[in-house]
Amino acid sequence: AGVSACGGSADSAAGDTSLDVVVTTAAWSVETGSITLADQLGFLREEGIQANFTTAKSGTEAVQQVIGGNADVAVATPEPVMIAAQQGTDMQYFMPFYGHVIYGLAAVPDSGIGSVADLRGKRVGVTNANSTGATLLRTALKAEGMSENDVTIVPIGVGAQQITAVRNGDVDALAMYDTLYTSLRTQGIDVTDIPVPGLDQLFGGGFLAPKDALAENPEAYEKLGRAVAKSLAWARLHPEDAVRAVWEAKPETRPGPDQDEQKAVQDQIAMLETRLGALIPDPQVSSWTEIDPASVDRFADWALQAELITGKPPVEDVLDTNLGTGIGGFTPADLQPSAGS
Amino acid sequence: MTLATTDAVALTGVHKSYTSKRGGEVVALDDVDLAVPQGQFLSIVGPSGCGKSTLLKIIMGQTRLSRGTLSFGGELPEGRHRLGMVFQQALLLPWRTVRQNLLLSHDLNGAPAGGSDRIADEMLAKLGLTDFADKYPNELSGGMQQRVGIGRALVHDPQILMMDEPFGALDALTRDQLGMDLLEIWERDRKTVLFVTHSVPESVLLSDRVVVMTARPGRIAEIIDIDLPRPRALETINTPAFGEYVTRIRRLLNSEHSAH
Amino acid sequence: MTLATTDAVALTGVHKSYTSKRGGEVVALDDVDLAVPQGQFLSIVGPSGCGKSTLLKIIMGQTRLSRGTLSFGGELPEGRHRLGMVFQQALLLPWRTVRQNLLLSHDLNGAPAGGSDRIADEMLAKLGLTDFADKYPNELSGGMQQRVGIGRALVHDPQILMMDEPFGALDALTRDQLGMDLLEIWERDRKTVLFVTHSVPESVLLSDRVVVMTARPGRIAEIIDIDLPRPRALETINTPAFGEYVTRIRRLLNSEHSAH
Amino acid sequence: MTTTSDRTTSVPAGASAGRPPRKRLVDQPGWLLATGLAVLLLTAWEAAVVVFDVSPLIVPAPSAVALSLWSGLADGTLLSHAWITLQEILLGFSLAVVAALSVAFLVTQSRLVDKAVFPLVVATQTIPKVAIAPVLLIWFGTGMTSKVVTTALLAFFPLLVNAIHGLRSTDPDQVAMFRSFGATRGQIFRRLQFPSALPSIVAGLDVAAIFAVTGAIVAEFVGSTEGLGYVIQATNFTLDVSRTFAVLAMLSAIGITLHFIIVTIGKRVVFWANDVSRLDH
Amino acid sequence: MTTTSDRTTSVPAGASAGRPPRKRLVDQPGWLLATGLAVLLLTAWEAAVVVFDVSPLIVPAPSAVALSLWSGLADGTLLSHAWITLQEILLGFSLAVVAALSVAFLVTQSRLVDKAVFPLVVATQTIPKVAIAPVLLIWFGTGMTSKVVTTALLAFFPLLVNAIHGLRSTDPDQVAMFRSFGATRGQIFRRLQFPSALPSIVAGLDVAAIFAVTGAIVAEFVGSTEGLGYVIQATNFTLDVSRTFAVLAMLSAIGITLHFIIVTIGKRVVFWANDVSRLDH
Ligand SMILES: Nc1ncnc2c1ncn2[C@@H]1O[C@H](COP(=O)(O)OP(=O)(O)OP(=O)(O)O)[C@@H](O)[C@H]1O
Ligand SMILES: Nc1ncnc2c1ncn2[C@@H]1O[C@H](COP(=O)(O)OP(=O)(O)OP(=O)(O)O)[C@@H](O)[C@H]1O
Ligand SMILES: [Mg+2]
Ligand SMILES: [Mg+2]
């Protein structure tokens, strides 16, 4: 597709508008797979949109793909967007994906940690020393009058490595994102959330595109958004179907032959609900497609406090509020998958 | 020494010294004046290490001279076909068969395949290697390898042919035979030949002139004109004149040797 | 041929054939019976490619024989110091100076440094390389390299010394001189020597026996006992008996040659 | 003096009838020995997993890996991913070979390139491919091209250095001989320097092929939705460690196959090089 | 026939007074030429960034990179991180050298090891280090050890292959000569095979050093809180692309320094090898 496509000019043979969407994830999973279900369930075709979904390892790389003109839309958390905005590169969110900030702190069972204050002198696991989880940890410590020197930050990665590190007792607490905690819980490690005040009031991120492209061809983005929103809502209503649909489209997310399939379904439903539960509290209502400018503003405040940025960009620079209503313009009755493509 | 109109190659006041890895200089050639007329068969004899190979390598352009002048004259074709050398080692290409090694210069100069084959067959017969045409160099004995090296230079057929102890690894019979073959080829075309050998009779038998060198620093002791009638044959060895030349050169070499 | 009590090495019915890369076999040695008594100086002459090097390599254990038996006898020390060889190529180690190359076997056998130095100096003088003791092999002329190879084997001082055309790259004087040096060393210790050469006079002058070989397949044509008195000197060449041996061997070689 | 010989080399076993040839372990074919050792190691691993009750999240049992490998192959998913990766490996490797040999040619033929360009080539080699992945993705897209380029970048350098090393070790006397035969620069390169460098180039190809495998995987890590590298990432997320190891096993198989292809072809091409077996008896 | 000579090689310029030596570009020292070319390329890059209005979030201008490099060096942060990484590189490299030479020794001395063990070593090499880095973290901890091991793993293979190639190309005649001198296996290795292999080993060291740099960075990517790899991650997170490129420039500097150290020492150690300059006149 490329930049020209987002102007709606470079149409595919079918007369559809083609958009390249880059999703932040190391690999497809049931959570991100729920986005691509829009294609599988026929919602995109209904809207006359063709979308090519690719992945980027980090939000930064996803955003760079958009800046570099390699992708039209990115699905990413707001940190790189805020930073880019500060450097004069305007990209706007037009649809949410994460309900609110997905990062949080959690205590390993039997660590005796109940609050941020208890973290003093403890080992806190992060996926990577430069993750937003680590940044969140720093700001939370600062709010309690501590600094990162009062804890030991241990990068423990994701997946099996992370679970092993927790099992081995390498860490006392964690500063990561929600689905990783769910993953730990499905493995029988019942981590408990450490409350960080105001965290669930912060914008979590979602779909974004260059400001001028959004201004030029809002319909295309609205159509894409609506198709994806439908698939997310459908997945929220039919989690098991969604899990199996993702397995079908992306066989690598299917459990291995040595794993219990029923447990795998339950585990992945838990992941899906973690992701979509916060975004779509009530599946019957579609107003969740609108982004609250105040939450974005609060995130900017937090980013400033976290020293990710040195000045707050105006909310209008990073948020396009014009499409939200149109994107949510469907009812549960519209969620009928047309025959799988 | 100035370049005569008929000189194929001339060296004037040539000095060559090597700087050693551990410091210190070795003078390989000192004040060498030598002009080789077009079409002459010239032999060089001298003790081991006196600079014979160095002299040839300088003419080949393989080694730079430290002082002096090297000049080529006469009707030499530009660049190609000018010089040919048989080295002290055979220097065969291990990935080419005997035949392919012999035809190296033909291949490099894009000669038509048909004619080359005939030439190769003739040369193989001369070298006594007909049965070994399709063998690779590391399947040959030392002497056989050296013969291929000689054959390769003869097939190349250069205007100036230089040979550095070509017959060193050969038995007396093969040696005599190849010497005669060389002479026959030379009689036909009268190319210029510079021939390094340790065999004094060989040098007398083949050459128009013999250069006797002294060791360290390598200097020319004397240049002896060999006034024996041509064409020569192995029987020439039995003439009294031949014996005299041999004795004279041996005496020269002896005196040079004992002076050290 | 059975192993006599005093034989240093004996070959019985030895056959060696090489399989060629392109298929086909080359018979290098066929039905060779040879016993070398302890302390004998034995020369091997024969046309190029007749299997002389192969024979030595089989005794060295460097090449496997295809058929036949190889046996060593007598009072040979186990494993070490048994065999020594001067190869057709000098095979010097380029990272060792001339002196270090000469002393290679001393170093390998942990000889005390002091004694080695004296031995090296003596050998350097014999080889005429005193000035080149600290040079590296690629700073030497071809003949000089060959001399170092000879010196290295002599310093090693093995029970059985094998030399493959050691003097091929040397001028006549150096050659004579080193031949006499070799004879002197041999007279002192009477080690067993197997000496390959292309010079018939040299073989007669040095040896107790001369093995004349025929080409393809390599067979022993005749073994000639040289009954000349010892110690021998260069003057021995002028005796009539010497001339007769030379003529006889040359005739043998000639007939072998023309038979092909 | 003794009458007995203290060493006798007799007729080779094959030729003398009657004496049964004593087969030593080392005389078995290589694949058998290597497989044998592999089986031995896998058994030990399986036992260790059982005995120490290792969590399958850390190191799964070889049997579980084999099962996962089998099912992945049976349902075709692993093969289709492997095919993608194999294409990237082969294309990237080919690109690296062409690039490395061209640069090696220029470096050894032109002193100016050697002095001015080569240091800059070396300088670029230390840049981790993962770090410039975004740039590569933007330049070459998210498709196969960017993976092929990353693969080629990783395979390029070992081959380059070996090719240069090989081209430089040509015998100067032979160069002089070629010159005297009127050979052009190109002829000296093609007919002398290149064949002389072949043994060294083959060693470089061996390393390059192995690094091409790693390169393709790294490229897929950076951003891709197919290929074995992507499967490693995906299975890491779904905690399907057996499948991760199954993919690693496939990579090893690809690598060892490439290695043996190169070694075998190499031996035929460089038929004149020292035969190792001559050192061992 | 002509009386003029068609070619005359005269006294070298240095010896004859009066004639001013014509300095050709290629005769300039290497560092000058390479730096010159680098400056040229950087200028072109700077111009391209300005002309095409490239976003600094993707490719910053060299001037911005230089500024960032300067400020990072001035406040000492880059240097302290670089020191960490350098330690990992050097330790990992040393470990790789010891391991590769030992394995090469075993492979070339024992046919059993060659046939049975070597294929398995090759098989393990295709496993991407990034994929097993988590396992390495579990085994060797999050400290420097795991980084050193990762670095060593990456540097190991190119050196191993080159060392084996070098050891195998020993002249069999020379081995026979050593045997006849009563040399032990160890002596043949140390006094003959090893020195014969040195030119090839030096080429392998060159590649290994460059890969050690990449290895350390990749290791730091996986899990670390210091080092240049960590800085790349950190600046990537904060979209400080100029600083990322500044770090890449430092890595290049480290790489090229190691390269020149190895090449220079290599030339002294392998003093007897063909001198390239002999091919160029
Ligand atoms: N490695 C090998 N592979 C195949 N054939 C070989 C090999 N080495 C020698 N030959 C063949 O064996 C025969 C004898 O070779 P050998 O080197 O023993 O001869 P030689 O008597 O030493 O000759 P020269 O006097 O020329 O050195 C030759 O025909 C040669 O082609
Ligand atoms: N590359 C070199 N470096 C240093 N010194 C050298 C080099 N090549 C030759 N020499 C020295 O130059 C002198 C002459 O060597 P050259 O090879 O020309 O002798 P030669 O007459 O061919 O001897 P031979 O008959 O032994 O081959 C010798 O003293 C030798 O040590
Ligand atoms: Mg010489
Ligand atoms: Mg021989």
Automatic annotation (TrEMBL), chains B, C:
InterPro entries: AAA+_ATPase, ABC_transporter-like_ATP-bd, ABC_transporter-like_CS, ABC_transporter_ATP-bind, P-loop_NTPase. Residues 9-236 form the ABC transporter domain. Keywords: ATP-binding, Nucleotide-binding, Transport. PANTHER family: ALIPHATIC SULFONATES IMPORT ATP-BINDING PROTEIN SSUB, TAURINE IMPORT ATP-BINDING PROTEIN-RELATED. The keyword Zinc does not apply. Signal peptide: none annotated. Pfam families: ABC_tran (PF00005). GO terms for molecular function: ATP binding. This is ABC transporter ATP-binding protein. SMART domains: AAA.
TrEMBL record, chains D, E:
The chain crosses the membrane at residues 31-52, 89-108, 120-142, 148-167, 197-219, 245-265. Its main location: membrane. Gene3D superfamilies: MetI-like. Residues 1-22 are annotated as: Disordered. It is found in: Cell membrane. It is a multi-pass membrane protein. Residues 82-266 form the ABC transmembrane type-1 domain. The keyword Cell membrane applies. The keyword Membrane applies. Keywords: Cell membrane, Membrane, Transmembrane, Transmembrane helix, Transport. Residues 1-11 have a biased composition (Polar residues). InterPro entries: MetI-like (IPR000515), MetI-like_sf (IPR035906). Belongs to the binding-protein-dependent transport system permease family. This is ABC transporter permease.
